[in-house]
Amino acid sequence: MKNSYQVKVNNAFDFKIDKQALLNVDTFEVSDSKFHVLHENKAYKTAITKASFNQKSYHIQSNNTRYEVHIFNELDILIKEMGLKISATKKSQKN
Question: Domain-by-domain residue ranges, the chain?
C-alpha cells in the first residue's frame, strides 16, 4: 500500500490524495477541532464539526462552507471491490 486515500466530498466529488499532496498543505491546530490551513497561498479557517472515526466520516466547515467528507484507504477500496461491506457483521443462526 502506498499511503493514498480515496476521498468523497458531499457524495459528489471523488478524488485521490497521496502523501505528497498532504505535505503540500500547511496546517496549524488552533484547538482540538479548529485548524488554520494554508494551501497554494490561500488561507482557510477550518473546523471539524462532527467526526465518526470508525465510519471515516467527517463534517467540516471551511470559510463558512460545509462539507461531508468520507475517507477510504486502499484496504477499504479493496474490500469494496471484493463485494464485501466494511462494517458488515455476520449473524449465525442456532437451531
Answer: 5-81
Query: Which bin fits 94, alpha (ψ -120 to 50), beta or left (φ > 0)?
Result: beta
DSSP, collapsed to helix, strand or coil, labels residue 77 as helix
Task: Express each pLDDT in 25-65 by its tens digit.
Answer: 999 999 999 999 999 999 999 999 999 988 889 999 999 99
Beta bridge partners of 37: 27, 44
**Residue 70: what residue type?**
H
Residues near 65 by beta carbon (within 8 Å), at least 6 away in sequence? none
For residue 38, which phi and psi values (nearest 5 degrees)?
A: -120, 120
Strands 34-39 and 57-62: unpaired
What phi, psi does 23 have (nearest 5°)?
-70, -20
